[in-house]
Structures are given as structure tokens and as C-alpha cells.
Amino acid sequence: MKYVLVTGGVVSGLGKGITASSIGVLLQSCGLRVTCIKIDPYLNYDAGTISPYEHGEVFVLDDGSEVDLDLGNYERFLGCILTRDNNITLGKIQQHVMDKERRGDYLGTTVQIVPHVTDAIKEWVERVAMIPVDGKEGPPDVCIIELGGTIGDNESRPFTDALSQLSYSVGPENFCLIHVTLVPVLSVVGEQKTKPTQHSVRDLRGLGLAPNIIACRSTKELEENVKAKLSRFCYVPIQNIFSLHDVHNIWHIPLLLKDQKAHEAISKVLNLAGIAKAPSLEKWASMVEISDNLHVPVRIAVVGKYTDLSDAYLSVLKALMHASVAFGKKLVVDLVPSPDLEKTTKNSCAYKSAWKLLKGADGVLLPGGYGNRGVEGKILAAKYARENNIPFLGICLGMQVAVIEFARSVLCLPDANSTEFKPETKHPCIVFMPEGSTTHMGGTMRLGSRRSYFHVKESISARLYGNKEFVDERHRHRYEVNPDMAVCLEKAGLSFAAKDETGKRIEIVEVPTHPFFIGAQFHPEYKSRPGKVSPLFLGLIAASCGELDAVLNPVSIQQDNNQHVVVGNGRNGDPINGLCNGTNKTSQKQLVREIQVKQYSNQSGRND
């Protein structure tokens, strides 16, 4: 097994996760099979109970594990399916060691950080590294390990010790360390400063880890004299020092690394010359080119209470981007603070600003969340979208809020609410799930991949999913639509398009009289990929552009051997695949999109 360790220095938030993901894409393009492990050195067992303001969103995997958002980056970039064991925390390690101690596995021994905790970390890494995540049999070729936090943090010490031991035990030809660090530019001086990186590398070496590659984050491209200085003082070959300067789209990072021949540097360290092929990133480059050349905007208002930190809605924002690129539109997102929409703030500038953003949007999205802060603002946003025929997508709490608003406005039940926010409400539209725990918070929700069966075959959501009988999507909730109120809600015009396997738990709601008003109890954003767009997000973007028929009545687009565009009827018109799989130039791709939209609009089925 070959290991690539990604560490960070100077400050946190440098983009180690994006760097690790991009390295994975680059290695995959060389024909290598890749897996990933994220190490979070906090004492929490997992990310499930941590506020989004602490570490960003909580990402949910198929197996129901609540993990760091970087695992979402791995899955989106690499197209893999990870498990709970791909996320290591100090809490998990400590519990693992204590369980062994209680069983008597260490009988007669004093349990210590070294060797017992460090051995547990090494064994965990070596075990998980051998598990395939790409759906194929056999172990991967390379395991990318990202160490969270910053080198020098006290909480990371057990992990740096363990990884130092791992590098020694597997040998230098099987271990490549990439150190991501900051090269700041002082505005007064105007030059790139190397001293923070020098000190960070010194600290890294003091922990028994020597970098093979330094990836330098900066606002602009690294100057050659700066590279030479870093090489001289950090004892790293100049060809192994890479510039990761700011780009407007993170999809550029794999291409940036390829252009600087990062694959050759990694291959040389890991002795991959006889295994790795020349990188092939044509499809990725084509996708980036399409994204960079979009000009027609579509404006989506994301209404939530964590809008001060965009990472709190990272997967939602990425899913919107995937869908907009697939549909050939330039995404513009307005993060609208839901508390500012409430009447209690009516005389403030924030109230006017929030409502201006909402009313200026082509579509409205209500993401998930917990707690009653800002809920009334979300209800008002759902009401505005429903009454004004604005395309609307509600996710998890967003769906529950839409049901509450419908009950209040259409059923004339002003007291309608969720028992999460008002336990004594006379009309509980949303109730606590009977199997949920009332004493423990962590890992007790309805989590992971669950199956939803379509009950309304002609619903928009069923058609977006290709008229499948069922879909498997990831969940994260402990409240649900009250089944006792389902009949009266349905009679009032709310359609329950999909339910769980029991036929009682509501999974998707729609307002059939609305152009596009959908709520999903699950989180479709968790499975959205650049090459595999979430149908509900694609539907929202299409409806917001006034072109929903382009998705509901697709026309397949292909190219023949002579690179001629062929348009015809069919269910295989996946927009992003149709745009990205060819080798034609940008102008040809734009022509394909124009033909596609024209054919969708006319619904003629002609070949142009």
C-alpha cells in the first residue's frame, strides 16, 4: 500500500481537504485506485453533535455515519462511497482503546499514549486503507490521509506520533508527505513571505515527519525566487514546491497540480513509474471549461440561519453548482438569513435587505437545520414561494416548514407547528419519530441511505427521477410529518409523492397546482456529483430558468464518430454527461446546449 499524507501548517482553513481531493483526482487520472481517510483530532466521537459554526456542515454517508465535510469533498471529487471508518477521531480511538482495556486485552500492562493509542491509530489506518471504495474488488493502490488541524496543535500529537511510526514501518518508497502551508503577502511590503512556512516545516520535522512536497497557498501564483528560497531552507527539491494560488472555482485545482507535474513528483517518491500512466483529465478539463464560460445567470435564494458561514451549507451549494453547470447556467446564490425575514425585525435594514434578496430570486431553497431560531422566517419564505409561483425546494426541515405553512395558510390552522418548536401545539403537523431517543443526541436520528417509494407516478419528483419505482437517498432527521394529519393535508391539495417502505412515513411532498413546489425529507445534496447531478436540484434550476420541460421531457444528445451532434428522443439526456464526454470545442458545446434547449422547448423530437 502507498500512502499520501496531507498536513497543514501556519493556519487552519487552508483547503487541505480540497488539496487531498484534487490529488486523488490526479492519481485516479493516472489509472490508480484511490481511497481516503480523514483524521479529526477532536474528542467528539463524530461530527454529529457539533455546531455548523464550529466545523461547517455535517456530512452523512450511506451507512448513516455523521462525518466531517471533507469526506463530502472526497466523494464528490473521486466518485467513491466512503464509510464511517474513513473518518477517524480522537474520540473513536479513545473509545476503542478503552473498550480493549475493559475486555482485558491489555491485561497486566499500563495503557499509555505510546504505544497503545498510537498502535490503535496505525492499525486503523492500515486496515481501512485496504478497503475498496470504488465498487471494485481488491485493495486500492493509494490511500490519501488528511490530518485535520494545524501542525503543532497539542490535540494532534498522538496522530503525528502514529503517522511518524507508520512512515518508518512502511518505508520511504511507500510514504509521501505533502505539507499545505500559507505564503502570505503583506499589503504594506507587497512581497510573498516564506518565514511562516519555514517555521511550520521545522515544527513538522520536530515531530518526526519530513515533507516530500510543499503545496503553498497564496493569493497569487508563487514567484520562482520564493520557490528557490523555500527549497533552500526547507530542504525540499524546488520541483516539489507547488503553487496553490486562489482560483475562482475549486475544480481548477486538479488541473493546477497537473500543470505543475505534481503527479510526477508523487510518482517519484512512491516509485510508481511502472504502475501510473500519464494523467488523462480531458473530461475534467472540459467540465471546467464549460463552467468558466457560462454567462446566463440563475439566482437562487438559500434561506437559512447559518448564513454567516457558507460551509454550513456546503453540500447544498455544491449540488446547486452541479445542477446549474449541467443546465448551462451561471449560478448566483443569495444566502438569506431566515431570522431577518421575521416580523420582529420589520423596522430594520436587515429585514428590508433579506426580503429584497428573496424577492429578487428565480428560485427558493430551504435547507435543513435544527432549533426554532429563524423558523418563522423560513415559513414566510415558503409562503412567499408558494403564493407567488416561485420554484421551491425544501430539504429536511425545509420540507417540514413547507408542510407547516400549508397547514396554516390552506387549512386555516394558525396554530399548526412542529412539536420540536412548540410541544403544546394543538395541530402538530410535524412530530417526533417514535423510534427516536429522548435521552441521547449523538447517532440517534434516522440516518443514512433509506428507500423512498413513489406513490404518485405522474408527480414532478417521480418524473425527475426517471419514473423509477423507488430511490435511495441519505437521511438525517428525528422529526417527521404527522401521519395523523396526512389525510386532511392531502384533501387540501398537498400531494405525498413518495413514502417509506411502510407507506406511512412521508418522504416527498408536492403542491400539484404549483409550477415547482417540492419538499424532501431526505438530503439529495449528499449524493450530488459533478458528473451525476441530483434530480431534485436539476429540477429546481430548470424550473427557476422557466425550462422545466427540458428535464421532464429530455432529448438525448450524442456525437457520432465524425464529431457531429446528434439529437433525438430518449431518456438518456443527462445534460452534464452530454456536455462533458465529448472532445469538441466550447463553441460546439454551447451549440449543443442551444439545440438541446430548443428541442426541449419545441418538444418536437426533430433532429437538427
Tag the structure with descriptive keywords.
608 residues, alpha/beta, nine-stranded mixed β-sheet, seven-stranded parallel β-sheet, 21 helices, 23 strands, 20% strand, disordered C terminus, identical protein binding
Description:
The protein has 21 helices and 23 strands. 36% of the residues lie in helices and 20% in strands. The model is unreliable at 556-608 (pLDDT under 50). It is globular, with a radius of gyration of 26 Å. With 608 residues, the protein is of the alpha/beta class. The chain starts with a strand and ends in a 6-residue tail after the last helix. Strand 8 (213-218), helix 8 (224-234) and strand 9 form a beta-alpha-beta unit. The strands form 5 sheets. It has a 9-stranded mixed β-sheet with strand order 11-10-12-13-21-20-19-16-17, with helices on both faces. Strands 5-2-6-1-7-8-9 form a 7-stranded parallel β-sheet, with helices on both faces.
Beta-strand percentage? 15-25%
Mean pLDDT: 90
Given as residue ranges, the uncertain stretches (5+ residues, pLDDT < 50) are 556-608
Number of helical segments with 4 or more residues: 21
| Chain oligomer state | single chain
Radius of gyration: 26 Å
Neighbour order of strands in the largest sheet: 11-10-12-13-21-20-19-16-17
The biggest beta sheet is recorded as: 9 strands, mixed
Euclidean distance between termini CA atoms: 52 Å
**Overall morphology:** globular
Class based on secondary structure composition and strand pairing: alpha/beta
The total beta strand count reads 23
